[in-house]
Each structure stands twice: as C-alpha cells, then as structure tokens.
Prior knowledge:
Elements: E1 2-3, E2 14-28, H1 31-43, H2 48-71, E3 76-88, E4 91-103
Parallel strand pairs: 1-3
Antiparallel strand pairs: 2-4, 3-4
Amino acid sequence: MLFTTTENIAGKNITETLGLVRGSTVQSKHIGRDIMAGLKTIVGGELRGYTELLEDAREQALLRLEENAKNLGADAVVNVRFTTSTIATNASEILAFGTAVRFE
C-alpha cells in the first residue's frame, strides 16, 4: 500500500477515487513517563518517552488506515494527514486520514 501526502503518485495514473479512509488510536500517558517528563522540563531537552508514545500511536493509526483502505480495494492513499485531539486529561487521539484510490 502506498501512502503520500500529495494528490498524485509519480508514475501512476489514478483511475478511481474510492473515498475517505481513516485510522485512529487513543493513547494515554504512563505515570512513569509523566514523572520523568516533569523532571526533564527542569533541565530541558527531548521527552523521549513521549516521543516514543507518539511514534507508536502514529504507526498504529497508519496500520488502521491501511486496513480501512484495503477493505475498499485501494492501491494507495493520497493526501494523507494526521491530527490529534485531547479525549481526556491524560488521553489523546491520533487520527490518520486520506483518500483511497486505485491506479492502473
């Protein structure tokens, strides 16, 4: 499955637009990560625990996006975007979405 943030795929002729596809996950922060992040804010720098959490969440959202696209018979997803929203005090949703297409 091809994913792109553009409308077109170089070298491919898109012949059919199948519609919106999406994949999401809701992740919560781990208390240990919160404590370490709080300490890290004193000295500054990357919050690696949060970086890993968000990378895992984006990967899960993309896997679900791909599953949704495959169910429609898509060859690719164009105009892929990510968004996030707070669901609760310590939980956020990561949403990946785009347009499923078929090509020759």
